[in-house]
């Protein structure tokens, strides 16, 4: 028999899950996508090297993770930088099977509500698209058999095993041909699967900020139904650095142009445009901004009804840039996360019918501490609104149990 306190606490925990762990929302201005897979901070070992996907998913400050990249389409191949070290080649294909990713994708989706996309392209993509519409449709069918729901008896290679992504992202950096039939066939396959299973799928793109985009122009010309696009406002004259703080009208910074595209050209009248930004000073060439300037840019973009949030390149850069993610999350109006990418431990809590696994992450202070000294075992050391000491007495570590409460264990 469980006490009324335990039952009430469990009910409260369940009630909080939808608001804390939620994937992409077409009605929100607070979506936050961060690319994972390229280890662009370029650390081979240590805490700043790219970690496995599940390491990041407990952090509630972002809700979308595009996996970067599927670097060839005709004969599909993946490149996930150091994460590929945990994969093994699949005979008869250019793909590899990644048991960690099979586990992590499922965990990130079911436990943490993350939307997991597969990003197609990247800077090294050089196939140029397809020679014909028929070839494009064939390629889309092939990708769906590889990354969509598994089909009994199929011989298609499955890099993610039985895990199924939530859709595709297009990041083409050069001119491509016959992408409209490719994208529309993927959309058709995803829609058909949704009608059968009820699972939602999404299609996104990452154009450069100059309009119209040289790579994605044909798809964006009212030909493909996108759920969201995250415009890369960096490495171009129209990037973040061209924003004029305090001005209600902008010249080179052209978010207004993309808003007009959303309202007058996009096949999806409710498409969301997300502000694409670098996650660190050297993350993506020119255009990095932070602090009050970035806050002003986000505030300006929020004034447009098409605004859907922020996209950041990339996870390794963000986690090497202390405080940046929390700042962006705060600018979007999101609560601080209980997770920040520290050491993860697992414990079990009793529920009326089963044992539920709760992942807890080494906490960082969510407010500026005003207290001094150290905290004894089981004492509070962090959480929203907490202003006391954050250092635990040896040998204990400050562990986040929720965004509201961290304690020394």
From TrEMBL:
One of its GO terms (molecular function) is chitin binding. Residues 30-335 form the GH18 domain. Residues 1-22 form the signal peptide. The keyword Calcium does not apply. One of its GO terms (biological process) is polysaccharide catabolic process. The keyword Ribosomal protein does not apply. Gene3D superfamilies: Glycosidases (3.20.20.80). Residues 373-409 form the CBM1 domain. Keywords: Carbohydrate metabolism, Chitin degradation, Chitin-binding, Glycosidase, Hydrolase, Polysaccharide degradation, Signal. It catalyses: Random endo-hydrolysis of N-acetyl-beta-D-glucosaminide (1->4)-beta-linkages in chitin and chitodextrins. It comes from the Eukaryota. InterPro entries: CBD (IPR000254), CBD_sf (IPR035971), Cts1-like (IPR045321), GH (IPR017853), Glyco_hydro18_cat (IPR001223), Glyco_hydro_18_chit_AS (IPR001579), Glycosyl_Hydrlase18_Chitinase (IPR050542). Its EC number is 3.2.1.14. One of its GO terms (cellular component) is extracellular region. Belongs to the glycosyl hydrolase 18 family. Chitinase class III subfamily. This is chitinase.
């Amino acid at each position: 028999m469980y006490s009324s306190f335990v039952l009430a606490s469990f009910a409260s925990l369940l009630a909080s899950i939808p608001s804390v762990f939620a994937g992409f929302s077409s009605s929100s201005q607070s979506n936050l996508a961060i690319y994972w897979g390229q280890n662009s901070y370029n650390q081979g070992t240590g805490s700043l090297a790219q970690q496995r996907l599940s390491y990041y998913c407990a952090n509630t400050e972002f809700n979308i993770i595009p996996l970067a990249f599927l670097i060839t389409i005709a004969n599909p191949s993946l490149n996930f930088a150091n994460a590929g070290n945990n994969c093994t080649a699949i005979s008869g294909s250019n793909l590899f099977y990644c048991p960690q990713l099979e586990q992590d994708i499922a965990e990130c989706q079911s436990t943490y509500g993350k939307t997991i996309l597969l990003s197609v392209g990247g800077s090294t993509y050089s196939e140029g698209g397809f020679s014909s519409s028929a070839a494009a449709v064939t390629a889309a069918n092939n990708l769906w058999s590889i990354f969509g729901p598994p089909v009994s008896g199929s011989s298609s290679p499955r890099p993610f095993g039985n895990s199924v992504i939530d859709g595709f992202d297009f990041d083409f950096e050069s001119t491509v041909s016959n992408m409209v039939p490719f994208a529309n066939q993927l959309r058709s396959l995803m829609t058909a699967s949704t009608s059968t299973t009820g699972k939602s799928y999404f299609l996104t793109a990452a154009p450069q900020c100059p309009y119209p985009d040289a790579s994605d122009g044909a798809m964006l010309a009212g030909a493909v139904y996108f759920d969201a696009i995250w415009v890369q406002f960096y490495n171009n004259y129209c990037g973040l650095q061209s924003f004029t703080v305090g001005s209600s009208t902008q010249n080179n910074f052209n978010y207004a142009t993309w808003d007009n595209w959303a309202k007058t050209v996009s096949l999806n009248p409710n498409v969301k445009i997300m502000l694409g930004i670098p996650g660190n000073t050297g993350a993506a060439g020119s255009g990095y901004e932070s602090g009050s300037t970035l806050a002003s840019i986000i505030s300006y973009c929020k004034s447009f009804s098409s605004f859907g949030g922020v996209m950041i390149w990339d996870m390794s850069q963000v986690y090497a840039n202390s405080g940046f993610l929390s700042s962006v999350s705060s600018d979007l109006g999101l609560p601080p996360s209980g997770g920040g990418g520290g050491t993860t431990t697992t414990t079990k809590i009793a529920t009326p019918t089963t044992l539920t696994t709760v992942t807890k992450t080494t906490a960082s202070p969510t407010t500026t501490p005003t207290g001094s000294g150290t905290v004894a075992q089981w004492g509070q050391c962090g959480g929203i609104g907490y202003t006391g000491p954050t250092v635990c007495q040896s040998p204990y570590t400050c562990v986040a149990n929720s965004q509201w409460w961290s304690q020394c264990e």
